[in-house]
Structure formats: structure tokens, C-alpha cells
Amino acid sequence: MQMARVDLDGNPIAPMSICMIGAGGFIGSHLCEKLMSETPHTVLAVDVYDDKIRHLLEPQGSHPWSGRIEFHRINIKHDSRLEGLIKMSDLTINLAAICTPADYNTRPLDTIYSNFIDALPVVKYCSENGKRLIHFSTCEVYGKTIGCFLPKDSPLRQDPAYYVLKEDDSPCIFGPIEKQRWSYACAKQLIERLIYAEGAENGLEFTIVRPFNWIGPRMDFIPGIDGPSEGVPRVLACFSNNLLRREPLKLVDGGQSQRTFVYIKDATEAVLLMIENPARANGHIFNVGNPHNEVTVRQLAEMMTDVYSKVSAESSSMTPTVDVSSKEFYGEGYDDSDKRIPDMTIINKQLGWNPKTSLWDLLESTLTYQHKTYAEAIKKAISKPAAT
Length: 388
Ligand code: NAD
Ligand code: UDP
Fold this sequence. Notes:
Helix content is 38%, strand content 15%. The protein is α/β, with parallel strands linked by helices. Strands 3-2-1-4-5-7-12 form a 7-stranded parallel sheet, sandwiched between helices. The protein has a two-stranded parallel sheet with strand order 6-15. Strands 8-11 form a two-stranded parallel sheet. Helix 3 crosses helix 6 and helix 5 packs parallel to helix 7 (182-202). The longest helix has 25 residues, at 359-383. It binds nicotinamide-adenine-dinucleotide and uridine-5'-diphosphate. Uridine-5'-diphosphate binds at residues 101, 140, 213, 234-235, 238, 250-252, 255, 257, 259, 297, 336-337. Residues 101, 140, 213, 234-235, 238, 250-252, 255, 257, 259, 297, 336-337 line the site of uridine-5'-diphosphate.
């Protein structure tokens, strides 16, 4: 007999029904996988695409979780079925967003509509129907660090007070309006404020998640293979694409920006704790990242090159990296977050969560997946003469 599953306070966890919007994306696919294989919960998976969760949906009847996941092909911009699905569920998780930096300055209207306007009905339906909401925001709401405004040689730059990002303390620092990069961060900030206000004024039970560069298999797409040739995904997929094609990795503005990367499988552990411990998660905003996995983008490129040559058993390319300007790579209006170290106090205290996987290990499993999934397709694409 299976042991009853209990929450962090020792209470049995009752099976729940979850409306997951954006379930067909990178994070959604991993969350669905985890919910199906480790819990008895039911998922109403809402997205316009299902490719990344098709392995969970088909063939009907052959999985132990069969009947616990149902796909609804819905564009939340204009579909009256959404409210019904939220009403039927105990919890709504909203992941739907345009969240690729290449879009923020080139498609700022779509970015703002997707991250703010399209999320409004979701918040409203949860609030009006007394349903719990876990909303995905971003670490980008912090924008730039206070430290980046100090003189380059200031010793204060080494002081964590000037760069560690704290949910209840750090300010949100964005660039000027003409730097349209910040359209995403600003829209996410406003929806966070709206959710927070719904909690304060109307009693909405909410949790806000701020992911700090979650990476792993199924993130984004490889241009020309399972996404547009001219598309620019996030850095993991850009560098994977370069490595698969044996091209130099492109470092935007010298690759000096710093990021902390967390393995998707560690991060979804944190989300499951939020799902199953509402009393500890409601009313909170959580940073979810790995402060120990910090690198500059240049160091990331070097590490990915080393890891890829190990997992593919191919020697690395002769010109490992090349510098490109942000204007050339992303176009007008790009700007960057300089450094992102999450403070972990709140998530430690509320949920006792800590990430486990080192950057090397997470890159090794992710690049093994990329190589297995794409190497053959890339070889074929390269050998095919270009269409006339
Ligand atoms: P993703 O692009 O892989 O997933 C988003 C999913 O939402 C996609 O499958 C997309 O089809 C769907 N979607 C978008 N608009 C929709 C609409 N109108 N109707 C229905 N479905 C729609 O991105 P992800 O990395 O899985 O990110 C999920 C969430 O987490 C986003 O809100 C993002 O802003 C946030 N986030 C992620 C990271 C990260 O490290 N991956 C970092 C910061 C924030
Ligand atoms: N970047 C880069 N080369 C690429 C893609 C991205 O140098 O081919 C840089 C980008 O300018 C940023 C960092 O990598 O400094 C992370 O970019 P990503 O798209 O993953 O999103 P972000 O962390 O900025 O939200």
C-alpha cells in the first residue's frame, strides 16, 4: 500500500485539481511531468501548443496517470472557456507569457499585452470565484542592481547589500522608456502589484514566483529545427544551437553580465512545495534560483563548450566565442540586467527549499539531452542544399 503523502506540517495532502495555463511551455512541461509521476493531482493543461507535453497525453490509457491530465487548446486572449476551467479547479497556475528577451524590445506591445493585459482575467476569475492563484513573475522585476550605479572601482560593489535581490526589500530599477527591454519587467511588476492588491483588498489567496534563470531540457527551441530560423531564443538554446552547428558562441556586449542558473528539476521541487503547502505559500513572493551557480555569460559560454565537447565526444570549435553588440544581436532598445543573485531567506523559512544541482552537472544533463535530440537533425539540415 502507498504511504499517505503529507505536507510540511504533517497533514495529509488531498488530491487537487489544477488549471495550469501555459502548461505546454518549458516550465509547464516539467511541472506536468512531476505532478503526473509524483502526485495524485489532476491537471487541466491550457496552452496553444502541446508538443512539449504530448508524451504525457498520448497514447491514451497507457500511462499510470491516464485520465489525470487533459489538454485544452485555448488562447487565453480570447476564449470564454477559461473561466469555466478556473471555476472547476482548486488552484490556478499561470505560466502563460511572452518571456524571451529578443521580443521585449522588438515586440513591446505584444510583450506588455501578454504579461499584463492577458493575465488580468485570470486574476479576476480567481479573485471572484475564491480560487487560489500561483502566478509566475520573473527575477527581472528587480531590473538592475543598486551596485551597478556605483563607480567601477568602488569597494561597495563587493558588498552583498548592493547586489543581493530580496523580495521584501530590494527596489525595482529599470532603464528609461526608450530602452524597451524593460517592457516585460514593467508589465510583470504591475501584474504583481495588482495580485498583491487583490490579496490585500479582496482576500485573493496568491503566491508569486520569481524564477531566476531556470534551465534544462525542452527550453525554447533550436532555430531552423523546431523553431523559426531567424528566431532568437534564450541564452541556453542560443549557445546550444551554436555548439550543435559548431559555430562560435555569440557574446552580447562582451558577455560581462552575470546570471545564476538553476536546474529545472530543482526549481519544480520548489513549485510542488508551494502547491502542496498553501498555508506556508499564500501571500508570499518567492525568489526561486541557485545563488551558488553564478557565472558571467562569457564563463557560461566557456563551460558549455567544455561540457558539450565531453557529452558529444567532439573536440570544441576553433573559434569558441565572438563578440557582438547588443544592437546588432537584439536591435534598438535592448538593455541588460547586470547581476542576479537571489536572496533565499523567505523560501528557506517558509518551505525549507534549497537547490541541489551544480552548474556543471545541470549543463551536462541538459546538453546530453540537446545532443541526443538535435544533433542528427542539425547534420541533415546542414548537408541539405539551401532551398532556392
Ligand atoms: P515558455 O515560453 O516555454 O512557456 C510559456 C507558455 O505559455 C508557452 O507554451 C506558450 O504557448 C503559452 N502561452 C503564451 N501565451 C498564451 C496564450 N495567450 N494562451 C495560451 N497559452 C499561452 O516559458 P517558460 O520558460 O516556461 O516560462 C513560464 C513562465 O515563467 C513565464 O510567465 C515567464 O515569464 C516566467 N519566467 C521563466 C523564467 C525561466 O527561467 N524559464 C525566468 C523568469 C520568468
Ligand atoms: N546572451 C548572449 N548571447 C546569446 C544569447 C544571450 O550573450 O546568444 C546574453 C544576454 O545578452 C544576457 C544573457 O545572455 O546578458 C542571458 O540572456 P537570456 O536570453 O537567457 O535572458 P535573461 O537572463 O537576460 O532574461
